[in-house]
Amino acid sequence: IAKQDRVLALSHIGVAYFAFLVGTFCGLLQVFIRNDALDLPAWLDYYQILTAHGVLLALVFTTYFIFGFFITGMSKTLGSFGPKVRFVSWLGFGVMTVGTLLAIVMIVSGQASVLYTFYAPLQASGWYYIGLALFVVGTWIIGFALVGHYIIWKREHKKQLSPLFAYMTIATIILWIIACLGVVATVLFQFIPWAFGWVDTINVELSRSLFWYFGHPLVYFWLLPAYMAWYVIVPKIIGGKVFSDSLARLSFILFILFSIPVGFHHQLTEPGIESFWKFLQTVLTFMVIIPSLMTAFSLFATFEITGRQKGGRGLFGWFTRLPWKDIRFTALFIAMFFFIPGGAGGIINASFQLNEVIHNTLWVVGHFHITVGTPVAMTFMGVTFWLIPYLTGRKLTKSIQKLAFIQVFSWSIGMLLMSTAQHILGLLGAPRRTAYSGYNGNSEALKWFDGIISNHVTMAIGGSILFFSAMILIYIVFVSFVASPKAVKEEDFVEFPIAESDVENTPKFLENWWIWIAVALILIAIAYTVPLSNMMHHAPVGSNGFKTW
Ligand code: HAS
């Protein structure tokens, strides 16, 4: 791909890994505080570190990495960007980075210890919300640039289906833009006026609902780029092709339809929302599980077909024919493996009654470490190993590959220990989001930590192994950016693996975005209009006589 596109992509990936470095350090502090092994100085607050950890890893690392990946893949599959697309992308990068810096300054200066979910009535400095708004606007600008690049390609290739990678990128951007409407509404119309003191109250229930309207599809904004690697890149690495082009496209469409009208499954224990609407959104949540089950089916099929083609016999012989020594594959396979318990945990969370048991406990923290923290993050790691050398034109040396194995295995072990402890402690009743890790010496609470796995030490050991793994990764990233020898010979150049995908039988209507956007909006209207308008109707009245929106 063109040099300028490489620089653009590398800038995104560079910021992503800087956020990763600081964010994982905050994670290390986190587990030691919870283990009562670290007393923070008076100027540093537990919630401040927790906010930095969540924002830097869950929002900044993921988003920058995702756009770096999209830019590379779009330039690779649709051709290099034109000057306009490139200019708009840089503009988006600039706006997003100004927003990120503003938000980080607010967190570091202790004026935004409101966690990454920034629920009202917790209040941060108004500048924090401005930073968040700029961050989202920046992503929209880059998103529009990528959509523009796609439209130009479509004009030149009339009646052709776009390459699978580009199709999936556009689907993810559509999902992201519709999802952000909720968070933009609450930030602009509720948080900013309230935080700057222009109104004196805030409608808490409405703000939480608008947040989760955004918050749940946010997790699919993280997941879908990982699915792109699983669908498009893994088959190429293992020497096969995409199992079914239509199935892959359909699963992305189902995410556009069902990932948004489901936010209430994060609010099942909250008053102010009638049970009927919670129930409806629970049903829709079960619909959004289907594309993940389709993905699992498709991956198993790809593995089995390719393994058999390579001579694997018997019921499981194909399994041994997969390229286990190739870190690009092994990392992604382990990532998928973690998503089996991760997804099962999600189904438990979404079950209306079972949610009563796990809500606001450490179980949820365990859940998101084996969804975004491993399947997604480890897929990004597995992609990083070849993506940076591909962009910098440097070698992926044998020693780096060995280190990458150590990195991926240590991450897996660390995550296994930490998240298992969190799940068990959560089931026993340990709350999340609390600085009181000793639970004020409550003897009943201290009994939770009696078991070997549920011991707080397990969590700290897991967290320390994770930090060790993170530092190896930072080293690999650094070497791939600047220190590894330049590739000169043909065979030293690292490829961007893209699998063949047969489009002959793929129905064209799958790429008629307007149909899917319209159906998505109808579902959102059904799931949200009545409950949101009820919330606005009962909104508190401020001292100025206006209802606080
Ligand atoms: Fe979740 C809370 C429900 C998926 C992230 N989730 C969270 C939070 C985060 C998060 C960050 O209903 C906490 C938010 C907060 O701070 O409060 N989640 C679900 C459901 C799914 C789900 C139904 N979550 C995710 C993903 C995330 C993520 C993905 C990040 C990327 N989640 C919930 C609920 C809550 C929640 C409630 C609120 C809890 C509460 O009360 O607070 C589904 O999408 C899951 C479907 C997935 C599957 C798995 C398919 C498996 C595949 C792998 C195949 C493997 C292969 C390898 C091929 C059905 C595709 C095989 C190899 C072998 C050897 C076998």
From TrEMBL:
GO terms for cellular component: membrane. Pfam families: COX1. The chain crosses the membrane at residues 8-33, 53-75, 87-108, 128-152, 164-192, 212-234, 246-264, 284-306, 327-348, 368-391, 403-425, 457-483, 513-530. InterPro entries: Ba3-like_Oxidase_I (IPR033943), Cyt_c_oxase-like_su1_dom (IPR023616), Cyt_c_oxase-like_su1_sf (IPR036927), Cyt_C_Oxase_1 (IPR000883), Cyt_c_Oxase_su1_BS (IPR023615). SUPFAM superfamilies: Cytochrome c oxidase subunit I-like. GO terms for molecular function: cytochrome-c oxidase activity; heme binding. It is found in: Membrane. This is B(O/a)3-type cytochrome-c oxidase subunit 1. It comes from Radiobacillus deserti. Belongs to the heme-copper respiratory oxidase family. PANTHER family: CYTOCHROME C OXIDASE SUBUNIT 1, CYTOCHROME C OXIDASE SUBUNIT I. Keywords: Electron transport, Heme, Iron, Membrane, Metal-binding, Respiratory chain, Transmembrane, Transmembrane helix, Transport. It is a multi-pass membrane protein. GO terms for biological process: aerobic respiration. The keyword Transport applies. Residues 17-510 form the Cytochrome oxidase subunit I profile domain. The keyword Electron transport applies.
